[in-house]
Design goal:
By secondary structure, the chain is mainly beta. The chain has one domain. It has helices spanning 26-30, 177-183, and strands spanning 2-7, 13-23, 37-47, 54-63, 78-79, 82-83, 92-101, 107-118, 145-159, 162-175, 190-199. The strands form 2 sheets. The protein has a 9-stranded antiparallel β-sheet, covered by helices on one side. A two-stranded antiparallel ribbon has the order 5-6. The longest helix is centred in the C-terminal third of the chain and has 7 residues, at 177-183. The mean pLDDT is 91.
Length: 200
Amino acid sequence: MFLDISSRNIRNVHLYGTFYIDELKVSRITDPNTHNFWSAKGGVSLTNVLVPNLFLRAEYGMSMPITYEHRVPTLTFASNNYNMGFYMRDNSSDLYLSAAYKPIRGMTVSVSYNLAKHGPDYPYVVSDTVSVRVDEHPFMERVIWQKEEYGFHLRYEVVNNTYLFASYLISDITGEPEAVEYYTPALFRGSKQTFSFGFN
């Protein structure tokens, strides 16, 4: 079940969010030791803040353990083992902040910050022999994978819908060795600086 909200009722403010419930059991709502399987993301963007052509954005997303998973493989929220839900999968969180400024026509200068965390992966096992039920796994009990990234971006519209762009990223991907190896290509592990440019 999905719920999407987008509101521009306040001048220069855009509030938005999405809420996804993968599995809902009413008794879990009032039980502090269990949880339903859900994922949510919300954000706010501000336009022309303090000065004209300044844009600020903040977003936060989180996904509870076991969301998008299922004991029946054909009922997972995946295609060819690729998760079709939250890009960080279940048991994770993502914070994104950005500021953009348009000093002249066609040019956008922006900075961004991203902090993504992923907790332990739990199997969807329903059995009397397991010590912890699937709805009792804690949210982000520990962090097994983390990415912190700072970005500096420049984009210029040369002619209508034709852009030149350049980006400089400073990233640091850390965590438990097995998780870092599984979720991150070798080229991007650890502290990295990446410069990219091009046109589209």
